[in-house]
Amino acid sequence: MLNIKRPTSTTVLYTFSTRAPQETFTALIANYSFLLARIAAGFLVAILCLIVYRTSWPVSDDTIPVPWLEEFILSSPLGQFATLLIISLPQICRFLLCAATTWLIFRKGYTEESLLVIRGLGVQTSTSSPSYLWTSSTRFIPTSSIQDIFIHEAFKGFEVRYYLTIVVDGENDVVVVFPNILPRREILENVWRGARSCLYGLKS
Amino acid sequence: MPYNIAMVSDFFYPQPGGVESHIYQLSTKLIDRGHRVVVITHAYDNPKRSGIRYLTNRLKVYHLPHWVVYRSTTFPTVFSSFPILRQIFIREQIEIVHGHASLSNLCHEGILHARTMSLHTVFTDHSLFGFSDAASIMANKLLKFSMSDVDHVICVSHTCKENTTLRASLNPLAVSVIPNAVVPSSFQPLQPHEFKLSHHASDKGALLPPPPDPSHPVGPGDPITIIVISRLFYNKGTDLLISALPLLLERHENLRFIIAGSGPKAIDMEQTLDALPQQLVYTASGQSRVVLLGSIRHEEVRDVMVRGHLLLSTSLTEAFGTVLVEAASCGLMVVATRVGGVPEVLPSNMTVFVLPEVEDVVRGVTEAVGVLTSKAVRRDKFHDLVKNMYSWADIARRTERVYDLITGSSSAPDNEGFYDEEWMHYGQPAQPHSFALMDRLKRYFGCGIWAGKLFVIVVVIDYLIYCVLEMVYPREKIDVCKPWPAVARKRFEGEEEQSVNGTLERYGTVKQKHRRRKADEGAVNGFNDEG
């Protein structure tokens, strides 16, 4: 869905996200329960690592910094589940399980792409990263090197899609805005009109 | 009623050729009549054409990318382009799919898928085929498959219609004949001012014989230039030309030849010329009597044609012979072999027909030279005659009539007057063409004992793929293209020539005509009020 922010008359930010809108009660509940599940999975991986660490390099009880906390963690339901996993799974499976869970925890479930237009400066396109671990990739194009902004069609896979694109001075390839989401034509037309009117101060 | 039409063919620009220019000209004129036309063809490598392009005249071209398997080999299946064709048909809201050229794989695929999607289909055949050799038998079987469910077939000449009807076992009533045309303004005879120019600036084309002065008739003994424009292939009769050339050079001292075109027979041609004695091939002043130009571009054809008096065509098979019409439009006398659709193309006072034999070709050329020198024919009148015979706007009008027929809608007002009682319902199927899968399968099953069953399987698979595609890429998710914004039509130069004939009304789109008529009425009323 498209989200437009217009803090001043010369700046406009178009954000397009595949995330479902967080407005209904059920959507909020689903969102928070998903977050809780992630935290739990994170703890599980941490406990697994702790048990493996303790069994690999055993130490005497008085060198453990907070013994009662460790006791509590291992006796909690999560800790018992972790111990069960340690016993039942071979080492390679445990490693794979940890890696996969970590990857899933830090993965973003949606893509967010945006176009920021500032009159007199230029435009900035950005695409969110697939994971929480690194930042989104952005590209700034100054007004002086923007030759044109237009909407065109192209074959993509088994489909024919519309795309909004910026022609940059001195580059062979055009810069596609919203390259992963490729919104529908009506939305692109709105963005195109808004971006042009903001960038060049045109009435449209 | 305006339609959304998709022209599907493997042959389109930038590749030069007759089918290509036919599709382009027809589409342009159909757009002028108020229809929306897109062309679907495959991607070309050199010059690179891929993706979606707009040509001038609002024509949109889809160059389908190759699904390259290995080193530019494409996947030779029947269904591979279905997903993308379906997307295009939906987003352009296509109602009629018009395939061109029977050797084009994409065209047959497009027709099959269009029928699966319950769209109307038309097919235009541009070529003649034999019945006897293995390749023809295969091609004919495929044609039969593709044609057994097509709504209407258009052929470029009556001979072509006969051929296609036999090859594909069609109902002759569902086959129409609509010829090719030429753009008369690009094939004009040499104008007097051009003649003066060409004599002053003799640096270009110094090797070629100078163009004849159109205002002076040919006297006996004057040099006569014969033009040959054809690709040098076996089926274009190059062997016949090679055999006839020495005899002609020997018999007529004043003959010169300009041969344009290339092909596998070019080497044979050069060898024959080299083997001839010097005094035959060169004039007394040392000029070569036979000039081989190699392949030339289509826009250069006219400049070559106006340098000659005669066009010689020795083709062994020809569905229509556009080059003959172009030559006549340039004011050339035509000597052509009586094969295929050639006799239908031009009236007999412009042409000398010969049999495809060496002696007869020589006889024909001799006869034509005699006609030229005896001034029995007015070459300067040819252009105007051809202009009235062939026009793309007229072709588009007749093609639109076919579209009206298959969709069962009433024809445009300018299209009605041409068909009286007898022709009113010509070509309409006895019972309406059913889109139901069962009826389609029955039609395919009748194709042959084994082939029928095979075709039925293919059609059923195609239908299943269609169902899957409807689920994977739902219709609602496909963006519909915006129509080209309406433009106020200006009067261009090309239109003037039509208005000279007093037929401008006919070529306008329905809406424009309506508007124009209203304006006229308004003007008349205004006059009445004043009076």
UniProtKB/TrEMBL annotation, chain A:
Keywords: Membrane, Transmembrane, Transmembrane helix. Pathway: Glycolipid biosynthesis; glycosylphosphatidylinositol-anchor biosynthesis. It comes from the Eukaryota. The chain crosses the membrane at residues 29-53, 81-106. One of its GO terms (cellular component) is glycosylphosphatidylinositol-N-acetylglucosaminyltransferase (GPI-GnT) complex. Residues 114-179 form the Phosphatidylinositol N-acetylglucosaminyltransferase subunit H conserved domain. Belongs to the PIGH family. This is Phosphatidylinositol N-acetylglucosaminyltransferase subunit H conserved domain-containing protein.
UniProtKB/TrEMBL annotation, chain B:
It comes from the Eukaryota. Residues 511-531 are annotated as: Disordered. Its EC number is 2.4.1.198. It is an enzyme of class 2 (transferase). The chain crosses the membrane at residues 448-469. The keyword Transferase applies. Keywords: Glycosyltransferase, GPI-anchor biosynthesis, Membrane, Transferase, Transmembrane, Transmembrane helix. Pathway: Glycolipid biosynthesis; glycosylphosphatidylinositol-anchor biosynthesis. This is Phosphatidylinositol N-acetylglucosaminyltransferase GPI3 subunit. It comes from Saxophila tyrrhenica. The lineage of its organism: Eukaryota, Fungi, Dikarya, Ascomycota, Pezizomycotina.
